[in-house]
Amino acid sequence: MPPDSYVKTHIHTDGPIPGPHSLLTLTSAAFTVDGVLTGTFTTNVRELPGATLHPIALSHWRTRADDWLCTRRASRPPVLAMTAYARWIDQLPGAATFVTDTAESDYLFVYWYLQRFAGLWPFARTSTDPDLRARLPRPRVCTLAGCRTPDRELAFTS
Predict the structure, then answer these.
(1) CATH number, position 45
(2) How many domains does one find in the chain?
(3) Is residue 155 part of a domain?
(4) What residues are paired with 25 via a beta bridge?
(5) Cα–Cα distance measured from residue 29 to residue 125, given in angstroms and rounded to the nearest whole number
(6) Model confidence over 108-153: pLDDT tens digits?
(7) Contact (CB, 8 A) for 89 and 125
(8) DSSP 8-class letter at 145
(9) Which range marks the domain in which residue 55 is found?
(10) Labelling 155: which of 29, 91, 106, 134 has CA 20 to 30 A away?
(11) Closest to 101 in 3D by CA, of 140, 124, 131, 139
(12) The pTM is what?
C-alpha cells in the first residue's frame, strides 16, 4: 500500500467567500508525511457568472496589477478546473489528506468549488494539525510574483 499524500494548497480570490466572489488561482503540492514532494497542481479559474470583485480585494489587486493579469491568463471554466483537480487528487499515492488552517479561506473555497463543480470532496480526510502543517514544506509553486519573495509566508487568500 503506497504511503498517504498530504496536500497543502494556496489560493487567490477576489473576495472573502465563494459564490458572491470567485476563486482565481488554485495551487497545490502533495507531500509524503516526511515532506518529500510527490506532485503539484496549478490552475487559473475563470470568475463565476454574476460574482463581483470585493472592494477590499479590488484595492489589493490594484497594487499587484501584474499578478492580477497572471491570474487571468489561460483561466479555465470552474467545472474544468475542479474536475482536473479532483482527478489529480485521485491519482496521488495512498489516501489524500487536505492539510489546512481553518482560519484561512483556502478550505472554504476549495471545498465549495469541488462540491459545486466536481460534485465531490476527493480527499480521504482533512487535517488542521499545526504540527503537520509546520512539518511539511511550504509549496513554492505559485506563479504570482508577490508570492515568490523569500520572506513572504503564503497568503492563502489575496
Answers:
(1) 3.30.420.10
(2) 1
(3) no
(4) 12, 44
(5) 16
(6) 999 999 999 999 999 999 999 999 998 898 767 787 887 765 444 3
(7) no
(8) G
(9) 5-147
(10) 91
(11) 131
(12) 0.90
Contact between residue 78 and residue 113 where contact means Cβ atoms under 8 Å apart: yes
Q: Over the stretch 69-98, which tens digit does the pLDDT of each residue have?
A: 999 999 999 999 999 999 999 999 999 999
Chain-centre distance of CA 108, in angstroms? 10
Question: Is 11 within 8 Å of 109 (Cβ atoms)?
Answer: yes
All cell numbers assigned to 34: 516526511
Where do we find the cell 514532494? 37
Q: At what angle do helices 78-90 and 106-113 cross, to 10 degrees?
A: 100
Per the domain annotation, does 154 fall within a domain? no
Tally the residues of the chain: 158
What does the alpha-carbon distance between residue 6 and residue 12 come to, in Å, rounded to a whole number?
20
Q: How far apart are CA 118 and CA 86, in angstroms?
A: 7
